[in-house]
Write a structure and sequence with these properties.
single chain, 119 residues, alpha+beta, four-stranded antiparallel beta sheet, globular
Length: 119
C-alpha cells in the first residue's frame, strides 16, 4: 500500500506542470473541448473548442452546468476535464444571470439540480 501512495505522490510531482484543477465560479467565461471530432478523420480544420460559454454552477461530481452567451443552457452537464478558461481580449459585460437564463427558478425537469445553486 505504501508503494502505491509513493507512486501517486511521484506521479503528481513529475506532472505538476500539466495537472490543473480549475475551480470555475458562477459567471466565469470558459471554452469547452469539442470531443466529438477527436475520432473523426476530417478533424484537421474543425474547431477544437466551443465557446465562449458561461458557467452557471458545478455539480457534486465535478461536472459544470454551462450556458451560451444568449442564455440557453446546455442539455447536459459538461465534464470538468473538457472545460478550460477563456481569456477575453477585451472585457465582456454579462447581464445578471438570475434574470437572463431561460430556466425557470422552480423547474421540475432535469435542470432541477440548478435550484440548489440559485441564491
Amino acid at each position: 500500500m505504501a508503494a502505491r501512495l509513493n507512486a501517486a505522490v511521484r506521479f503528481e510531482r513529475e506532472h505538476a506542470a500539466t495537472i490543473r484543477d480549475f475551480d470555475f465560479k458562477r459567471g466565469d467565461l470558459v471554452l469547452v473541448r469539442n470531443t466529438a471530432i477527436e475520432k473523426a478523420l476530417n478533424r484537421k480544420m474543425r474547431a477544437r473548442y466551443i465557446g465562449p460559454l458561461v458557467v452557471i454552477s458545478r455539480n457534486k461530481g465535478g461536472a459544470y452546468i454551462i450556458c451560451e452567451l444568449n442564455g440557453s443552457v446546455f442539455d447536459r452537464p459538461v465534464a470538468a476535464f473538457r472545460v478550460i478558461p477563456y481569456f477575453a481580449r477585451k472585457h465582456l459585460t454579462l447581464p445578471d444571470l438570475d434574470n437572463f437564463l431561460d430556466v425557470p427558478p422552480r423547474s421540475n425537469s432535469r435542470n432541477g439540480e440548478l435550484r440548489s445553486f440559485r441564491p
